[in-house]
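**User:**
Everyone, produce one record:

**Assistant:**
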Amino acid sequence: MNYNQNEKIAQITSQTLIIGVDIAKYKHVARAQDFRGLEFSAPLYFENTNSSFNCFIEWIKKLMDQNKMEKVIVGMEPTGHYWLNLAHFLKGKNLKFVVVNPMHVKKSKELDDNSPTKNDVKDARVIAQLVKDGRYAEPNIPQGVYAELRVARKIRDLLSVDLQAVQGQVHNWIDRYFPEFLTVFKDWEGKSALQLLKLNLLPHELIELSEQEILVHLRKAVKRAVGLSKIKELKKVAVASIGIREGSDMAKLELRTL
């Protein structure tokens, strides 16, 4: 849900236990306080494991009992993807968790001691204070089909980046070893052009093949392959190609890996 800052502050009562957690890859730090900022207990260090998460929950329950708290709110800084495991665990336990802006954490540390230096224990305290002041957001943790869609979108984005990288590498390869190729085939991603690239031959090697041999190779992938005139044109530009010949073995290996 979306709340303004006053509404967020109103949710923090004298019966609310506020937990600030500094997230790391392997070990987290938690600090607990009340709505006035009075701290309870020593900081808790717990690892990124199921057993440690359960210890964290038991620590919270113990503090709630000792201080007669009725509810708890756990704040954390969304550091990379490391916070997600704990967030899902807390959601499964029906414990409210929120996130704070990393820039707010940095600025608040500067106000406290004029130093933005990273310190896990200090960061956990600052996070708890930001939650107390209503400077937090409630993250949306998708479930079911929505979780599937989020992961699918991430995969799509990664594949799109990979595709663009490969396209750039192929263009780079053609520019170095057979720049004239694109004067015959305007789009190297076409079926015929791709099939010719799969021959894995440099221009001076391509001209050693007969036109019929090239045509047979093309028809393995393209039923309506380009005509002999196109093949003749390709061999003609290959004869006068300015493509690099040195390092040809590794050049062909590079093309095979793309």
